[in-house]
Amino acid sequence: MNKLLKTLLSALSALPLAYLATNTYLHFKHPQTKWDWSEIDTEDSEFPDDFLWGTATAAHQVEGNNENSNWAAWEKQKNENGEPRIKTGDVSGKAANQWELYEKDIELMKELGVNSYRFSLAWSKIQPDKDTFNEDALQHYDDVINALLKNGIEPMITLHHFTHPIWFEELGAFENEENIKYFVEFSQRVFARYKDRVKYWCTFNEPNVYITGGYFITEFPPGIYSPVTAGIVFENILKAHVKTYKELKKHEPTVQIGIVQSTFQFEPLRRWHLGDWAIARISSNIFNETTLSFFRTGTMNYLLPFETSRSYTDLEAPNTIDFIGLNYYSHHAYKFDFDFRKATQSIAVEGEEMTDMSYTIYPEGIYRAIEEVSKLGKPIIITENGIADAKDDRRGKFIKQSLYAVSKAIKDGFDIRGYYYWSLIDNFEWAEGYSMKFGLYEVDFETQERKLREGSKEYIEIIKKFNSK
Ligand code: BGC
């Protein structure tokens, strides 16, 4: 046998061993944690006295009459097959009319016993065109903030929750670095006005969802598949955050400013299959790590192998968050395919109960997500966690188990300052329209009546036990 053939054969015989070694390594590095809930007493939880107990919403989803934004335009369009962009054919329209009914909603918050409310400002209402700031809109949020404070509820503001004015979209939004200044200016303007009363600020809600929705899954505007543009937008949003943070902190160093990160775990559908592992790890790196590594190390490494990569460093980045907002919903399993779009179609993890969304109930995942974001070394606020459950037959258990996991994390030493249930009321769930029912309160969108769901009583009970404020 000649030498070359011999070397080739011995290399081939090493392959199974290499496969096994890689698989074993991945197995231990990324365990798919499972808790035996039948053995767990969810009553056994504890929370600090000054814990923020909250609920959250976003302007476009609840206010109504958001007619001047990227999403307002998007929800009226049809896709290339002539079907409406929103699966149900809904448009957000009047939504839950919180613009007019905010006082009623504050009553609901009091009934729940929460001491904080996270909401977003509709930039498109405040700055309907580049040169106009609308005093009525600014005054409206003054009224909301004052009403919250009067009722002992701490406001937390999100500056960008997926939507922005249509003029900003037409300029290319965050695809264009030049446009960052508009976001910073808007933020400065509202911050100057509300900073004396609002202590908690989130710059961006989930850059990773905004970007994967807009440039990978294409169910969010601008709906153009482009991993290359996605990398540019990541970089520009992270830059916009840093600039905004620095500008705002200059004027009021005592406020707390953070960014909100959605964290999902991505599991290989078959844990023995290296292809499935590859897709899961690549997805996790893009979705979770691009933002997290930037705030942990100062470097954003965005990488889709064989397609595109982008790296950006700003060593000051780790000093530009006072807290990390964590949104946690579930995990996904992925199955290998050479086509990345096909490979990343969400598969529900087997053996777990479904939510009404395309993912399962996996409350122990919130513990894993906490571990992940804690590596930033900053306080954590759980800015969203909730379940779409129209039948309301899973919500109560979901709340108990999720809060048990949060409490366990606190006991284990993680610095968690608050928990905001998503959502206070049913609302416009983006591409899913009004079909998804996340609300602690059910909303009748004809009459705008709100009704407490049975399962939500678990949240009231837990808050009652621990909220000393
Ligand atoms: C978003 C919310 C959304 C929720 C439920 C989060 O990604 O911030 O706007 O309604 O998930 O899907």
Overview of this protein structure:
The protein has about 475 residues and is of the alpha/beta class. The chain has one domain: TIM Barrel. Helices cover about 40% and strands about 15% of the residues. The protein has 15 helices and twelve strands. The strands form three sheets. It has an eight-stranded parallel barrel, surrounded by six helices. Strands 6-7 form a two-stranded antiparallel sheet. A two-stranded antiparallel ribbon has the order 11-12. Helix 4 runs parallel beside helix 6, helix 9 runs antiparallel to helix 10 and helix 13 packs parallel to helix 14. The protein is globular. Bound molecules: beta-D-glucopyranose. The site of beta-D-glucopyranose has 11 residues, from loops. Beta-D-glucopyranose binds next to loops.
CATH fold call:
TIM Barrel
* Spatial order of strands in the largest sheet: 1-2-3-4-5-8-9-10
Let me know the number of strands: 12
Major beta-sheet overview = 8 strands, parallel, barrel
Question: Can you tell me the number of structural domains?
Answer: 1
Please give the alpha-carbon distance between the first and last residues: 82 Å
By CATH, the architecture is named: Alpha-Beta Barrel
Radius of gyration: 23 Å
Beta content comes to 15-25%
Low-pLDDT residue spans: none
- CATH 4th-level superfamily: Glycosidases
Q: Give me the strand/helix succession.
A: HEHHHEHHEHHEHHEHEEEHHEHEEEH
Q: How would the global form be characterised?
A: globular
What helical percentage do the residues reach?
40-55%
Number of separate helices: 15
